[in-house]
Amino acid sequence: MLLEAHGLGYRYGGGRGNQPWLLREVSLAVEPGEVVGLVGPSGCGKSTLARLLAGYEPPQEGRVTFGGQPLPRGGYRPVQLVFQHPEKAVNPRWTLKRTLHEGGAADPDLLEALGIQESWLSRWPNELSGGELQRFCVARALGPQTRVLIADEMTTMLDAITQAQLWGAVLERARQRQMAVVVISHEHRLVERLCSRVIELGSR
Ligand SMILES: Nc1ncnc2c1ncn2[C@@H]1O[C@H](COP(=O)(O)OP(=O)(O)OP(=O)(O)O)[C@@H](O)[C@H]1O
C-alpha cells in the first residue's frame, strides 16, 4: 500500500477543554494510481483527515504510513494537499513564478495542460482570479516527487470548463506516474465520475 491510516484519532485542542474526538479509529489505504473519493457530511472531519494524511499535523492516536514507513519529516512532501481556497495557500508577497518553483522546477507541458499563461508568472497573487491562482496551486502540488495528491474541494469554486481542464490534467499525470489521488468533494457527480472507490467518513 502506498498511503495508509491505521486507527487514527484526532481532537482539536489536544484533549484539553473537553473537545470531543472528531476522528476515531479511522483506517484507510490507498494504492498507487488509485483515484479514491472521500465523502461525508459537513463537519465530519474530512479536511482534518486530509491534513493528517499529508503530515501537516500528527494524529493523537494511530499513525499514517507511506510505503509502510512513517511520512518523511523533512524535504519534499510526497503526499501533497490542495485546498479549496488558493489565496490562503500562497504567500501574497511572492510572485507566481516563485510560488510555482516552491514545488521544484515547473514542467512546461503541465503548465500548458493547466492553462497557465506565461504572462501570469510575473504577477502577484492578488493580480489573478481565484481560478487562475488555483491552477498554480495544482501545478505546485504536482511536482515529480508527488506520489499522492489530496484534492480537498479543489475545484469547488470553478466553472465546469475549468474544472474539467484541471481534472483532465491531474488524472493524466496520475495515470502516467501511478500517482494516487484522494478526491474530497460535496459534488456527488464529480466523485462518481472520477473515482473508482469511495470512502465514507461517518458523522460524529
Ligand atoms: N482549528 C480548529 N480548531 C477547532 N475546531 C476546528 C478547527 N478546524 C476545524 N474544526 C472543527 O472540526 C470539525 C471538522 O472540520 P473539518 O473542516 O475537518 O470538516 P469537513 O468534513 O472537512 O467539513 P466541510 O465538509 O464542511 O468542509 C468542524 O466541526 C470544525 O468546526
TrEMBL record:
Transmembrane segments: none
Chain ranges of the ABC transporter domain: 3-203
SMART domains: AAA
Pfam families: ABC_tran
GO molecular function, one term: ATP binding
Top-level taxon of origin: Bacteria
Keyword entries, A-Z: ATP-binding, Nucleotide-binding, Transport
InterPro entries, per database record: AAA+_ATPase (IPR003593), ABC_transp_ATP-bind (IPR050319), ABC_transporter-like_ATP-bd (IPR003439), ABC_transporter-like_CS (IPR017871), P-loop_NTPase (IPR027417)
Family: Belongs to the ABC transporter superfamily.
Protein name listed in UniProt: ATP-binding cassette domain-containing protein
